[in-house]
Structure of histidine kinase:
Amino acid sequence: MGELTVSPAGRRTPEYRWLQPAELWETAERPGARRSTRDWVVDSLCFLVALAWTLVAGLDLLQPEPDIVPQWTDTPVWLAWADLLAGAALTTALWWRRRFPVQLAVLATVSGTFSIAGAIAGMIIIFTLAVHRRFGVTAVIAVASLAGNAVFAQLRPEEGVSFAESLAWSTVFLAITLLWGMVVRSRRQLVMSLRDRAERAESEQQLRVSQARAMERTRIAREMHDVLAHRISLLSLHAGALEIHPSAAPAEVAGAAGVIRASAHQALQDLREVIGVLREPASDDTPERPQPTLGELPALADESRAAGVRVRLELQVDDAATVPAGTGRAAYRIVQEGLTNARKHAPGTTVRVCVAGTPGTGLTIDIRNPAPVGARPAVTIPGTGTGLVGLAERATLAGGRLTSGRGADGEFSLTAWLPWGQPGVAQ
């Protein structure tokens, strides 16, 4: 058995895990690999059993009248000694049976043509071959062993037993050994295959979790970007007002400066949250993020009014508390982006925001503002030009739709519809 290492999934697995499952049992114990405690116990038992049989059979054959092993006719002394030495060699070789299963199986096949003392050791080696080598190699050795058994039955016939009966019994023992070894091999391959599948499934699950976390963090960062853009637009608007009216009353200047300071502080906080979401590694603790709802639209309108934007908000929503969180958050973002666009492209106009809906019919958001009068102001709020694209994507992902454009009278409209099912009905 190979040394144990820690796999990516955290499990302790053999060092030969770099092999594919189909090739795993084609490689036996590698040079320098240390045996486990179980291997030492199994190898010691095999060695002791084979050694006991070798001593009993070999010494009994050297006695004039053998009475323990079956009586073999015409066994000269030199053959009995050769039998004992072959059995001792095979028994000693059992310590390397995992490293050299094919070579030892060939040696066991050759010695099996004349040796009785090496029978148990030979069976153990054949069993090891069936466990650690594919069926093709095992089949070749099995055919060679059958031929060796036929030679043994011819060279050393047992008294009172015919050649066919002796060959049949040796074939039965060989078949049992091979089948047992192949069953063990198949079971080990099945266990390894199931373990590989489990580890692969766990790795894929961890990858999916990591991807989901990354996507969630990106989505959170995008939402924070919307909030940050709103703060900065207010900041730019107040700064522009101070630049246009430098002779305003000190109280107005102080008020505008206070709003600028507060907006800058909030924008800085939002920026820190965005950077924190993007930099912190994914963990089980979800980062804190703003979760606006439909009930925060009046506060959003008041914030825009404080910046000098004329906003007329109409909420015609039955039981706003039952609006799904995702729908309410999407509606808030759409209204927020609509107000931001109005401040950018139509300063000084009145923005009409109408949010209406009932469970079952959906939530309708309508934002309208007339075209600006006069020349375009010198101070403008920079933008990326993708705000409406992002809103359309958000509405689509929520299961709704969004349209925008300027009418024949020059009025710009932003209309969205979001699904709002019946309470208690799965969406």
In short: The CA atoms of residues 121 and 303 lie 91 Å apart. The radius of gyration is 43 Å.
